[in-house]
Amino acid sequence: MHGDERPPPALALTLAAAVLGATTAASAAPAPPVRPPDQRPHTIAATYDRDGVVVRRFDLRITRRTGVLHATVTATAQASGATRRVALVVGRCAGGSLGFPTCPPSLSVPVTLRAGAGPIAVSRSVTLRQPPPGSDYVQAALVTPGSAHDARFAAKQEYARVLLRGTAWRGPLAGQAFGVRTRATAALDVRHVTLNLSAVSPAAARPVWTWTGTAPAPFSAETTLSPCGSDSGCTNHVYADTFGAGSVTAFARPGAHRPAGATAFSLTVASGPQDQAATVRLPWPDPAPASAQRLRGL
């Protein structure tokens, strides 16, 4: 799918039935209850194309020692058209809800992106108190100075964002980098990408993804979702499409069932075997449940 196209209702129902059928066939165990939308923990990684600012890398890694968190955020960004002043912020989320946390920054670093100066790389580290158990979130963002800390409003003032839960600093993923990287290939320049992994239960998620970019000529691309991240042993789901020249968009909101032992989730956009235009990697929002089943697809 691209542009403003949507699958026809009959196709959408067929796809939904296929996912439901695969789930039923894969496991006879009772499904865990589905959480209400405002009670679903989630992890997010996104970059936005606005105000002439392009973010090529934005990632966050967190470790925990002696009861406190040590977070490092790394960003690479550039501005065109006009010089932009932005802020690199990091903070624990101490309020709001699981669906819309509020994350006042513990660190705010001013960054000046001078027009035409090329990409600027910035990396900063900060020590944070453990977030409250009801939240368990840490967020990093590249924002316009003075932006709101409430996730319901901050997106319109962001250039990049990574929201992680405790699965990013407890267990096997501690210290690993999660976030977004993009680059311009000969066929495609991805300027915005979002992956929002919302856990409808500990063993299933509703990943919402989208990307936009520009292309000098018609091309083909594949968007690949892996419920195991970069680990092997999973069946990936591939969205293949052809696009025209100019501005292009792709999006989907599939269901994803968590294979046994899966800890990370990834998205890649490629215009050829060696031409990855975007990669996104996130931890699953919940610890891996002992009862998670290995399924054959998404």
Characterization of this structure:
Strand 18 and strand 19 form a beta hairpin. Strands 1, 4, 7, 9, 10, 12, 13, 16 and 17 form a nine-stranded antiparallel sheet that branches. Strands 8-3-2-11-19-18-14-15 form an eight-stranded antiparallel sheet, with no helix packed on it. The N terminus and C terminus are likely disordered. It is mostly beta strands and 298 residues long. The protein has two helices and 19 strands. The protein folds into two domains: 136 residues, Immunoglobulin-like; 116 residues, Sandwich (Immunoglobulin-like). The protein is 7% helix and 49% strand.
Report on the biggest sheet. 9 strands, antiparallel
> What is the average per-residue confidence, as pLDDT, rounded to a whole number?
83
Q: How far apart, in Å, are the first and last alpha carbons?
A: 17 Å
Number of domains: 2
Strand element count: 19
| Distinct helical segment count | 2
Q: Share of helix among residues?
A: under 10%
Structure keywords:
298 residues; mainly beta; Immunoglobulin-like; 2 domains; nine-stranded antiparallel β-sheet; eight-stranded antiparallel β-sheet; 2 helices; 7% helix; 49% strand; disordered N terminus; disordered C terminus
Quick rundown:
The protein is mostly beta strands and 298 residues long.
Topology:
Layout: H1 9-26, E1 42-47, E2 53-65, E3 68-79, E4 84-93, E5 95-96, E6 101-102, E7 107-113, E8 120-129, E9 137-143, H2 151-154, E10 158-165, E11 178-182, E12 189-201, E13 204-215, E14 219-226, E15 237-243, E16 246-252, E17 256-257, E18 264-270, E19 276-283
Antiparallel strand pairs: 1-10, 1-12, 2-3, 2-11, 3-8, 4-7, 4-9, 5-6, 9-10, 11-19, 12-13, 13-16, 13-17, 14-15, 14-18, 18-19
